[in-house]
Amino acid sequence: MSSLLETKIAARQHALREQGLLRQRKVLSVEHALNTNASTSSPRFVFEGRAYVNFSSNDYLGLSRAPELVEALHLGAQTYGVGSGASPLVTGYSDAHLALERELCDLTGHEAALLFCSGFSANTALMKTLFDQHDIVVADKLVHASIIDGLQDSGAQLKRFLHNSLESAERLLARHQTSALITESVFSMDGDCAPISELSALCRQHHTWLIVDDAHGFAVLDGYNNADAAKLIDVQVVTFGKALGCQGAAVLGSQALIDFLVSNAREYIYSTALSPANAALALAATQYSTAHPELQQKLLENIALFKQLCREANVPLLGSDTAIQPLIIGDARQTLQVAEELRAAGIWVGAIRPPTVPVGSARLRITLTAAHAAEDIMACVAQLTQVLSRVVVPLVTERQAADDHR
Ligand SMILES: Cc1ncc(COP(=O)(O)O)c(C=O)c1O
């Protein structure tokens, strides 16, 4: 006889499979050993013996393979060893961590910073520690799962405003005595940007903190990754696993906030510190991205090329100006089929399905990076155009035909 949990697991997996929502990992490997040209050639990987151009990574500046950063990690490991060996309040906090925190503060104008091993734990720690059942928190409808999980754990009352709607946010702020308003700089699944200056003015007016998850904006988005950020944003969460190409995250804010988190954030206190080698790497990546503005320029050119080719081919994008370019297909199974057809042509794009995005808005999430070559972007759009006409139109027609028969 099966145990209760075996039965539950089997039933849930079966339901997900039926809905086309089962998630599975794919084992990828590198096409060739890292070499000095690796950061300038299109991002590729090998899956089951075949090479693919990667249009689904958040390595927006192509830094994950930059030889200088490979060297920085190597040097960090030689200097500090490969692990921190303890939680930060025991013996896991070093001068490598402090140097990174200081660099991030210099860059953004915030007083203090606290490092975490991931953006997910930075967000949950921040929410769980800062808020309790006495707080009312207002958040954009599309904020990341880590924020929602942290808020749920905190016991705070959560009010959601319509995505990027100042009117909707203002209505909530006027109605409730709110502790904080939370949004993202660049939304991870839609690629659009929050109106940070306007939200900041609104928060000032209502004496409410503005908290911004800057995971997809940091190091790529102009505007508040500079010394003015702290003037607009009370708490900024930056991650190192996206545009910086490495791993980890930081919460940036006032000294009082960071001291409070050091004393109270369980994810920080009871977890092995980010390795000093990774802190040294993130510092090198931060400095590298600042010293190489041409990478941001190249990314902008690649985004513009992709959008122009899609416009010419009538591929209906969502209208994002960032590296994240969603193409809504709607149906989860159809989205998977389009992604699979693209893979058959050597192009790998993300197929994003509920619950990551709302039901009925399954989409391809195509991401551009500074490392993509123009030919690969052209090939991507050409294949996309063909696949959409071959797969989506016939399937839609089939569905309509079925509807007509009812
Ligand atoms: C908006 C946003 N915030 C936070 C995170 C979590 O960051 P990390 O990948 O470093 O855990 C992600 C990653 O998917 C994200 O998209």
In short:
This protein is an alpha/beta fold and 406 residues long. The protein contains 15 helices and 14 strands. The two termini are 43 Å apart.
Outline the structure in words:
This protein is α/β, with parallel strands linked by helices. The chain has two domains: about 25-60 and about 295-405, Aspartate Aminotransferase, domain 1; about 65-290, Aspartate Aminotransferase, domain 2, CATH 3.40.640.10. It is about 45% helix and about 15% strand. The chain has 15 helices and 14 strands. The strands form three sheets. A seven-stranded mixed β-sheet has the order 4-10-9-8-7-5-6, sandwiched between helices. The protein has a four-stranded mixed β-sheet with strand order 1-2-3-12. The chain has a three-stranded antiparallel β-sheet with strand order 11-14-13, with helices on one face. The longest helix is centred in the C-terminal third of the chain and has 32 residues, at about 375-405. The radius of gyration is 22 Å and the shape is globular. Mean pLDDT is about 90; it is low at about 35-40 and about 395-405. Bound molecules: pyridoxal-5'-phosphate. Pyridoxal-5'-phosphate binds near residues 144, 213, 215, 216 and 249.
